[in-house]
């Protein structure tokens, strides 16, 4: 098998057939073998039904993994990579925002340059609001400062990897998966190409601002311990400031006999320090929660069904 496409699907019933046809048209006669691994991530619409229909009706190599519930795109990617058999594997969305033509472009680069292990596509122009764009670029600036690995702004999971890199990614079995970080953590030689994301054919994006914020926090906690160190630093600085203030108050009282303002200062300081302590506890809590979940060693996903139209796999 030359190429595997890993396609996470969550409520994509209207896109499945269109996606399959589009891939078939694009890859036809190009002289390489390929399979499509769909992962139904606990969809509540007719996605599974459509996938069954597709598997029955079509001749192309189709594999379907269906989860017992929604585990998230990261888990779906992991399941798809585990099931894939291609020498090169591409992760691509089901909504046709990422065109199969770009996959051909990526494959050409891998074929031409043996030293390249992975071709990742990034969006040069993002079709989103200015505020969101600015927030995203702040996130990348911050995470690149505090984390041990490099994150490329605009790079998505849309990438083609050689088998060796896929195996390395599969060896990272952590529960809280932040793919962007994992892809750079495993290393390998990655080439970035620009692509233009198309508008969604059907349905709507599952990534609202709240989900994106959670995702960003997840990424920072998974790939950096800097917030813990920042908490220590802030605690140290505020103790230092309080000692300085103490000295000022003593000098004012002893040498200048000034009346030291009491009530307001105390209330402000208590509130400020109380807030700071809770904030730092929250940071520690974030890490603790991650350790707690990881230590339970729960599976990354639960497969409820697996089916394919390939006889030898049954
Ligand atoms: N997806 C998934 N599980 C989820 C959310 C999304 O498998 O919990 C899939 C979704 O079906 C799609 C891809 O991940 O194929 C990207 O999702 P979406 O198009 O909503 O994100 P966007 O393109 O807006 O970043
Ligand atoms: Mg999309």
Describe this structure in words.
The protein has helices spanning 13-27, 47-57, 73-83, 100-112, 130-146, 163-171, 179-185, 209-223, 226-255, 263-295, and strands at 3-9, 34-40, 61-67, 88-91, 118-123, 155-162, 190-195, 303-308. With 314 residues, it is α/β, with parallel strands linked by helices. It folds into two domains: 3-207 and 300-313, Spore Coat Polysaccharide Biosynthesis Protein SpsA, Chain A, CATH 3.90.550.10; 226-295. Helix 1 links the parallel strand 1 (3-9) and strand 2 (34-40). The chain binds uridine-5'-diphosphate and magnesium ion.
Low-pLDDT stretches: none
CATH fold group of the largest domain: Spore Coat Polysaccharide Biosynthesis Protein SpsA, Chain A
CATH architecture of the largest domain: Alpha-Beta Complex
Bound molecules: uridine-5'-diphosphate, magnesium ion
Beta percentage is 15-25%
Number of discrete domains: 2
Radius of gyration: 25 Å
Helix fraction, binned, reads 40-55%
Inertia-based shape: elongated
| DSSP summary: helix tally | 10
Q: What is the CATH C-level name of the largest domain?
A: Alpha Beta
CATH superfamily heading of the largest domain = Spore Coat Polysaccharide Biosynthesis Protein SpsA, Chain A
End-to-end C-alpha gap: 17 Å
The SS-based structural class is alpha/beta
């Amino acid at each position: 098998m030359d190429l595997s496409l890993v396609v996470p699907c969550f409520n994509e019933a209207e896109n499945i057939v269109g996606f399959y046809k589009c891939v078939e048209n694009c890859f036809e006669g190009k002289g390489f073998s390929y399979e499509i691994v769909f992962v139904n991530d606990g969809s509540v619409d007719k996605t599974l039904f459509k996938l069954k229909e597709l598997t029955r009706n079509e001749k192309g190599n189709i594999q379907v993994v269906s989860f017992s519930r929604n585990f998230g795109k990261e888990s779906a990617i992991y399941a798809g990579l585990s099931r894939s058999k291609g020498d090169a594997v591409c992760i691509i969305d089901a909504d046709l925002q990422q065109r199969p033509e770009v996959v051909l472009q990526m494959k050409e680069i891998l074929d031409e340059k043996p030293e390249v292990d992975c071709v990742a596509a990034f969006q040069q122009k993002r079709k989103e609001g200015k505020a969101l764009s600015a927030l995203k670029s702040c996130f990348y600036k911050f995470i690149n400062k505090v984390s041990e690995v490099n994150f490329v702004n605009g790079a998505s999971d849309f990438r083609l990897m050689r088998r060796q890199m896929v195996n390395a990614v599969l060896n990272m079995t952590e529960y809280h998966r932040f793919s962007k970080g994992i892809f750079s953590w495993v290393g390998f030689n990655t080439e970035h190409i620009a692509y233009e994301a198309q508008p969604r054919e059907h349905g709507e994006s599952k990534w609202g601002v709240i989900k994106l914020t959670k995702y960003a926090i997840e990424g920072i906690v998974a790939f950096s311990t800097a917030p813990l160190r920042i908490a220590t630093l802030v605690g140290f600085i505020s103790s230092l400031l309080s000692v300085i203030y103490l000295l000022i108050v003593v000098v004012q009282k002893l040498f200048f006999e000034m009346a030291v303002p009491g009530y307001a200062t105390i209330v402000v300081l208590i509130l400020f320090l109380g807030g700071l302590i809770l904030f730092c506890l929250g940071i520690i809590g974030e890490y603790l929660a991650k350790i707690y979940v990881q230590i339970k060693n729960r599976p990354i996903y639960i497969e409820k069904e697996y089916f394919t139209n390939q006889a030898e796999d049954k």
